[in-house]
Amino acid sequence: MRNHTTLLILYISSIRLSEIPGVFYHKVTRQKFNKTKNDLRILLRKSLNISIELFCLENIFLGYRGKYLEGVCTTAEEINLYVDTLNQMAGEKCFGFCWDSGHSLVIGKDVGKMIHMVGSHLEALHLHDNDGVEDLHIMPYTGKLDWERVARSLGDIRYKGTINFEVGFSNIPKEIYPQALAYVAATGRYMEKIISGKNEDGSKSV
Question: How many CB atoms lie within 10 A of CB 191?
Answer without folding.
Answer: 22
